[in-house]
Amino acid sequence: LQGLQKLLTESVRFLAPYEVRQGQEAVARLQGDLAARRQQLQPKKKFAFRALKKEAPPGSE
């Protein structure tokens, strides 16, 4: 993906503005899809009870 971005950046001088815009939109769409896929594949947080505060034993004050 970074290679595509670099290629597009280097090719800006030779491409028509329409083609540059289309390339930028395609790269942005791919980056969004990648971020969504990473979020989807990330392991889900497991449920855990919160630890309860232990009361101080009597006389320890």
TrEMBL record:
Stored InterPro entries: TBCC_N, TBCC_N_sf
Source taxon at top rank: Eukaryota
GO molecular function: tubulin binding
Gene (name only): Tbcc
Domain Tubulin-specific chaperone C N-terminal: 2-45
Protein name as catalogued: TBCC protein
